[in-house]
Amino acid sequence: MAVRVCLSAILLAFLLAASPIARVAGTQSEEDAAMAEVVENADLGYVGDDTPVSSDAPLTPAPGVETVCVFPKNAGKIVPAGEETELLVGLQNDGESTLNVVAVHSTLHLPYDHRMYGQNLTVQSFYNASVPVSVQATFPYTFAVSKFLQPGAYDLVGYIVYEIDQHPYQNVFYNGTIEVVEVGGLLSVESVFLITLGIALLGLFGLWAYGQVQQLSKKTKKGPKVETGTGTTDANMDEWLEGTAFAKEKAKKNK
């Protein structure tokens, strides 16, 4: 009985020690699966914003297949929350076999940590979308972020999934920053801050210029003239000189 209790305690301690490793391994496997998602049994067109996309093994790009991404008429990559945004996915097949495009989908991440999802975006599937060897093709993709998403900068990761000889592959056609803004908001938070700062600086400059003008006008103003009559001056001088030889001499001259 004592031996069984001892073995149970050792087994429990081993499980507790191994649990963090299991959690780390589970996190890494989830991250790998998220970075290599594939559409299965998808209908034609838009499947939905929160449609789960998964695969048994991470998908890699096929040799000779290159992709590019363009935001038409949206060079700033500004995405209004709750409204549809369109982009174009270009695919160049320089491989050895014809490929069949399965789907295009994307995910939204926080810019400082891609392991933290902001939102799984629209999954768009295709039927009979084949690209022969040495051919370029363009696929439109429309997505919409949640209208409740807080405005700001986010990282968008877009994937295009295709098959060659019934073997699935995947390319990342875009991995960069987009600016999510409120619907009807023409200015971003940074733009509003810069405009407000500019107005404040102009106001301070105006107050400083007004103060300089006021000081200059005070200096140019002339003080009031004070006129003194000769009679008053002479009377004061007589009082000071009364009884002196100069006063007597002056009195004689006046007579």
TrEMBL record:
<dbReference type="InterPro" id="IPR005595">
    <property type="entry name" value="TRAP_alpha"/>
</dbReference>
<feature type="transmembrane region" description="Helical">
    <location>
        <begin position="192"/>
        <end position="211"/>
    </location>
</feature>
<comment type="similarity">
    <text>Belongs to the TRAP-alpha family.</text>
</comment>
<keyword id="KW-0812">Transmembrane</keyword>
<keyword id="KW-1133">Transmembrane helix</keyword>
<comment type="subunit">
    <text>Heterotetramer of TRAP-alpha, TRAP-beta, TRAP-delta and TRAP-gamma.</text>
</comment>
<keyword id="KW-0256">Endoplasmic reticulum</keyword>
<feature type="signal peptide">
    <location>
        <begin position="1"/>
        <end position="26"/>
    </location>
</feature>
<dbReference type="GO" id="GO:0005789">
    <property type="term" value="C:endoplasmic reticulum membrane"/>
</dbReference>
<comment type="function">
    <text>TRAP proteins are part of a complex whose function is to bind calcium to the ER membrane and thereby regulate the retention of ER resident proteins. May be involved in the recycling of the translocation apparatus after completion of the translocation process or may function as a membrane-bound chaperone facilitating folding of translocated proteins.</text>
</comment>
<keyword id="KW-0106">Calcium</keyword>
<keyword id="KW-0732">Signal</keyword>
<keyword id="KW-0472">Membrane</keyword>
<protein>
    <recommendedName>
        <fullName>Translocon-associated protein subunit alpha</fullName>
    </recommendedName>
</protein>
<dbReference type="Pfam" id="PF03896">
    <property type="entry name" value="TRAP_alpha"/>
</dbReference>
